[in-house]
Design brief:
The complex is a heterodimer of chains A (189) and B (274). Chain A is α+β, with helices and mostly antiparallel strands and 189 residues long. Chain A has 7 helices and 4 strands. Chain A has a 4-stranded mixed sheet. A 3-stranded antiparallel sheet of chain B has the order 1-4-3. Chain B has a 3-stranded mixed sheet with strand order 6-8-7, covered by helices on one side. Chain B has a two-stranded antiparallel ribbon with strand order 2-5. The longest helix of chain B is centred in the N-terminal third of the chain and has 26 residues, at 8-33. The chains are: A alpha+beta (189), B alpha+beta (274). At the A-B interface, helix 1 of A face helix 6, helix 7 and helix 9 of B. Chain A: Keywords: Coiled coil. Chain A: Pfam families: DUF3801. Chain A: This is PcfB family protein.
């Protein structure tokens, strides 16, 4: 086999692989070119450069957004390709001077470098203060509510407290009765 | 009554030796197959006759042992089908993958079995020819045109598969798989149809398809497939033949399903490592 023949055979081999996939897709009922191109796109998805917002959203990853001057978009595209950043441009029709650029949160460090190269000031990282715990319900009895959500507290009256109240009342009544009995006994004597 | 059990180390060594022997046998059988056009044609037709679901290496071993084999299953497979393997029949070794490990198994041709249940022969009846052609047209990226002028087969100018109206349906059916492969490849890479390797591969798909449905293969098959080995790098015979099988299986399965034809068979074998 000469070199020219080898190269041609290699090309045929590659074409055969594509043909195999295409025939399989046709057998599955996917015949149009759009479906084919989609299938190839799935095999070789775009990983850097400009893409659509849909494609970014479909990845389901956290996205970040930055503002950019419209005139810098071209240079930004080149740098994004160079640094391997996948991004989508969101244009505001009312505001032509600025565009928003959306990208994956994991590419922040690369974006910072691109931003520097474009001459923009890197936005400071502002970390929100840790929110304090929600205020607990102010109550006279700290034992009842400490560590509990107010909603968790049972609104029904306590059975134990009712029993204690009744017991106390019964005890007092018994004591009063005893006193009365003692007095009548003394009087009888 | 039973043979004495081998010690585990000896048994392992025996199995390893069996495996190596089968792999070597497959390799040499595959190398022999691609040597000349007639052998390759017979092999592909035979593989199609076996249902195209047997891997290239295993099919080569079967056809080397029994050139007229047309239905092979394991002893258990025949049992499930409703036939029994003859007493004393010697199985044909097969390389099978079980749980990711390669193992040597034995399969038996229908001629090594007995029973009342006949094994169905797959064939396209004359009344089903039109339906089969329509189904193949559905697979094709271009339409079929019947006319007397112009080239026979894929016509790049017309972007159609051209056949003379007088051509027998059987002949059209036999040639269609090859033309579909060429037309599909042309869609991806214009001009590739002129490459000899592409023509040979397309013809190989047709021959295997013909074998599967008991159709007479195209007259020029052996001549076209001659010197196929020139285009296959040494040691890559299996890969090339598996590629052909994949396409033949896809086309054959589509027709089989559309025509409601059924072939008694065990589970299809997995692809061999390419």
């Amino acid at each position: 086999m000469n070199n020219g023949g080898e190269a041609a055979d290699q090309m045929v081999r590659e074409a055969l692989q594509v043909t195999e996939v295409a025939i399989k897709l046709s057998a599955l009922g996917i015949k149009n070119a759009l479906a084919l191109s989609l299938a190839y796109a799935k095999e070789n998805p775009k990983v850097k450069g400009k893409t659509s917002l849909d494609r970014l959203l479909r990845e389901g990853k956290e996205l970040k957004i930055i503002a950019l001057q419209s005139k810098d978009v071209g240079q930004f595209k080149e740098l994004a390709k160079q640094y391997g950043v996948l991004f989508a441009v969101v244009k505001d029709k009312a505001q032509n001077e600025k565009v928003d650029v959306m990208f994956k949160a994991e590419d922040v460090s690369k974006l910072n470098r691109i931003y520097e190269q474009l001459g923009y000031a890197i936005p400071k990282v502002t970390t929100a203060d840790r929110k304090k715990d929600p205020t607990r319900r102010q109550s006279d009895s700290s034992l009842l509510t400490r560590g509990k959500n107010p909603l968790d507290i049972d609104p029904r009256p306590s059975v134990r407290a009712t029993i204690m109240k009744l017991k106390n009342a019964a005890q007092k009544a018994a004591q009063a009765q005893e006193k009365v009995q003692n007095i009548t006994a003394k009087e009888e004597r | 009554m039973y043979e004495q059990r081998l010690p585990i180390e000896e048994w392992k060594a025996k199995k390893q030796a069996e495996l190596k022997e089968t792999i070597a046998a497959q390799k040499s059988a595959l190398q022999e197959v691609v040597q000349d056009g007639q052998r390759l044609t017979d092999y592909l037709y035979g593989r199609g006759r076996l249902g195209s679901h047997i891997t290239s290496g295993n099919a080569a071993l079967v056809l080397q042992t029994l050139p007229q084999a047309w239905a092979v299953l394991t002893a258990k497979g025949w049992d499930q089908f409703g036939r029994r393997v003859n007493k004393g029949a010697k199985g044909i070794p097969q390389l099978v993958r079980v749980n990711g490990y390669y193992n040597v198994n034995s399969i038996f041709d229908v001629s090594m079995t007995y029973g009342n249940k006949p094994y169905p022969i797959l064939e396209i009846k004359p009344e089903l020819m039109d339906k089969a052609i329509k189904e193949l047209e559905r697979l094709s990226p271009v339409n079929i045109v019947y006319q007397n002028e112009g080239v026979v087969g894929y016509d790049a100018e017309q972007r159609a598969l051209v056949f003379p109206p007088a051509m027998l349906k059987q002949e059209v059916l036999a040639r269609l798989p090859a033309e579909i492969v060429i037309a599909t490849a042309e869609q991806c890479e214009p001009g590739i149809a002129q490459e000899p390797y592409m023509r040979k591969t397309a013809m190989a798909v047709s021959v295997e398809f013909c074998g599967r449905f008991a159709l007479p293969m195209p007259d020029t098959a052996a001549a076209v497939l001659d010197r196929m080995s020139d285009h296959i790098p040494p040691g890559e015979e299996r890969k090339a033949l598996e590629e052909i099988r994949e396409m033949a299986v896809t086309i054959g399965d589509t027709v089989e399903k559309a025509l409601g034809l059924q072939r008694g068979q065990s589970a299809p074998q997995r692809d061999e490592a390419r």
